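New to this. Please check this protein:
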Amino acid sequence: MSDQELKKAQVLFKRRKFSAVISMLEPRVIDYRDSFEFFYILGVSCLYMGDTGAAKDYLHRCETIEGINVSLLVAQAAMYLRRGDTNQAVETYLTILDYEPRNKIASRAMTFIRTKGDIATISQWVSSGKIKRFYPDPGFYFPIVPVASVALLALVVFLSVLLIRHLPKKTSVHRQGDYGNLELSSDEKRNPADLQSGVAYNTILTSEQITDAYNKAKDYFLDHRDNEAQVEINRILNSNAKNTIREKASTLMEYFDEPTFDSVAKDSKFKNFTFEEVKADPSLYQDCWVIWSGRVTNVRADDSFYECDLLVGYEDWKRLEGVVSLSMQQPVSIDEERPVKVLAKIEIHDNKVLLTGKSYTQSISTANK
């Protein structure tokens, strides 16, 4: 295999064409027996495809070639987590954080293990594909286009700017990027339901409901309405949709934007679900982001973690909408005497609503009791 062929494999890897990567590289294992990059992209591709046996062998070869490597450690930690070996996973994530204290994957994985790292939940995440959020990021591929195409693109952009100036401000701008083929195949459209007998599903949907939910998820995603897309994805993952459709729906989640208070303030499309909406059907809101206000009580915290109960809607001491368990991604100090507003991700465990907080705000003055 030439260097040019290896570069083609790297492009396929960044485009998440993992099956094609495996087909291209596996026949040349002997030729590239001393190449870390070769075995790394091959091993991670196998991990994404669910072939953990091959992934383990190829990633072990990487370790033999180069020793400690953060990207490699992320892949190995994901394998430990996938098979429920949380002790080894934690040890590996701590090593990652020693080398890269701001490694986001390791931080998120540690929070996951601490708050809901039981075997049942891990198995569910493996089955749904959500465990892939802890896999190494393949990166992105930006194709180099010919000069003539660049010139044509520049002309199109120039004309588009002129056109946009005369359009209403609320005109939607669809997401741009290489997300693979988001359309359902003709077979998936004809037969969207899983016909296996004896399989238990949380929800049974008709063929029309499955395709409708997927099309809504895709359209919401392209329109930057990630929370609403997540609801439709959850509807599919909890249903009798066939595995290929579930996989396509899960893949969209890898490209969601993680909100901040600033981004939400500027984004009129952010759908902030209420506590009543979530309580009515919790499973639909797994992994959605919300901004809920209230007060905190029953605080459990030290220098390494923060947990409490959030009294949702109780900021004015008048109406309590509900109580949810809140854990923050990092140690914080929330004043229990003042109302608080929390940006958090919803997690559902045993049909119970939990929050993993990213950030919070509190007013300077103390509200009257």
